Amino acid sequence: RNCAAYLKLRNWQWWRLFTKVKPLLQVTRQDEEIQARESELNKAKDKLAKAEQEYTDLDRKHAQLLEEKAVLTDQLQAEAELFAEAEEMRARLASRKQELEEVLSEMESRLVEEEE
């Protein structure tokens, strides 16, 4: 029964065309799959290149910020030393002022005693 149906179909022109075109359809489908995979691969490569560029930029910014931090740390150290020196000088001046005020008050009291 199937054999008889096949023998009828075998000589039919549309069946011959179908049997010749069917393998070509699979090749086309494979080509489409290959193109789709190549497209995905290109997208992945673009993403990778973009990520590498971002990483390079961030690494460069990180190095720049580390340099700025080092410069600011040095400036802070210098300012702290200047502040310590100024504070020491202020303390010396305050003690000297106190001594001079004591001397002045002593002299004023002597002057008052001598005038009396």
TrEMBL record:
The keyword Coiled coil applies. One of its GO terms (cellular component) is myosin filament. InterPro entries: Myosin_tail (IPR002928). The keyword Heme does not apply. Residues 27-110 form a coiled coil. Keywords: Coiled coil. Residues 28-116 form the Myosin tail domain. One of its GO terms (biological process) is regulation of cell shape. GO terms for molecular function: actin filament binding; microfilament motor activity. PANTHER family: MYOSIN HEAVY CHAIN, NON-MUSCLE, MYOSIN-10 ISOFORM X1. This is Myosin, heavy chain 14, non-muscle. It comes from Nothobranchius kuhntae (Beira killifish). The lineage of its organism: Eukaryota, Metazoa, Chordata, Craniata, Vertebrata.
